[in-house]
Write a structure and sequence with these properties.
Elements: H1 3-21, H2 28-35, H3 40-58, H4 68-80
Helix pairs in contact: 3-4
Length: 92
C-alpha cells in the first residue's frame, strides 16, 4: 500500500474524531472516564495520540482566544517534559 492510502485513511479517522467532539452533547470527562477503562493497549494508543496532539498544539504559531488556553497548556506540558522520551508510549 502506498502513502496516499494511509494519508486518506488518517484523514478519514481525523474527520471521524472531529465529528465526535463537534457535538454539543460531547462530555469530555465522561468519555475520558470510559476510555480509561478500555483494554490497556487501547489506553496506550490513546495516550500516544494525546501526546502527539499536545506536541502539535504546542508548536502552533497562530492561534486566537478560542484555542489559546489549549496552546498554552500544551506548551506547559512540553516544557515539563523536555526530553521527548518522556512523552513516548511504547507498543507492547
Amino acid at each position: 500500500m502506498n502513502d496516499d492510502y494511509y494519508d486518506k485513511r488518517d484523514a478519514e479517522k481525523a474527520a471521524a474524531l472531529s465529528n465526535l467532539i463537534n457535538d454539543y452533547g460531547f462530555n469530555a470527562r465522561e468519555v475520558a472516564k470510559r476510555m480509561a477503562r478500555e483494554h490497556p493497549t487501547l489506553e496506550q494508543n490513546l495516550m500516544r495520540f494525546c501526546a502527539a496532539f499536545i506536541e502539535e498544539m504546542a508548536a502552533k504559531s497562530m492561534f486566537d482566544a478560542r484555542n489559546e488556553a489549549s496552546v498554552m497548556f500544551a506548551r506547559r506540558v512540553i516544557a515539563a517534559t523536555p526530553d521527548r522520551d518522556q512523552r513516548y508510549f511504547p507498543i507492547i
